[in-house]
Specification:
The complex is a heterodimer. Chain A is an all-beta fold. Chain A is built from no helices and 12 strands. Chain B starts with a strand and ends with a strand. Chain B is globular. The chains are: A mainly beta, B mainly beta. At the A-B interface, strand 6 and strand 11 of A face strand 4, strand 5, strand 6 and strand 9 of B.
Amino acid sequence: AQTVTQSQPEMSVQEAETVTLSCTYDTSESDYYLFWYKQPPSRQMILVIRQEAYKQQNATENRFSVNFQKAAKSFSLKISDSQLGDAAMYFCAYRKAYGGATNKLIFGTGTLLAVQP
Amino acid sequence: ETGVTQSPTHLIKTRGQQVTLRCSSQSGHNTVSWYQQALGQGPQFIFQYYREEENGRGNFPPRFSGLQFPNYSSELNVNALELDDSALYLCASSPPTGGADTQYFGPGTRLTVL
């Protein structure tokens, strides 16, 4: 069974600084998708960034980028120039590419990010 | 284009009761998934509906059931409520093209079981 592990329950960063959130996963599949979701206090889960496993190039979305290490099964999120609005719970999630309920997301336990002014 | 909506926002029930939660998917999306998020945890997949049929289920007992309607809106029904069913229930919809398409989440329903 696939699992997702986030070993940092809480992180803190100064405004305008850079922070990296860690995520590891376990799967026997060769093709899959990885995601980072943000959940602010409003509870709405918002997609931050996604990575297709077959792509070697790391995904980037403005101030957000990932370091995808397929062999190590590691998928970290880097937030550059942190802003107060980045404060939220961040979840790493895995989704297989084929077979069955392919929309099934497997989430980690989350990392609560605080941004200090 | 409207986003995913859920109702009600909050709900309080007692043990043994039954509850129905509702989700309206984003326009054009024909797949709906439901998740249970206990306090301090990541969401757990309950099941997925595609074209009005369940086509994937997580590790939840049969007292968790669902429906999807022709307009792709969906219901989650929970019978014989237990205290551990207290959680945030999220639904997510996605378009029919598959692949790495984004799932769009609703704001959730907070269920409290007393």
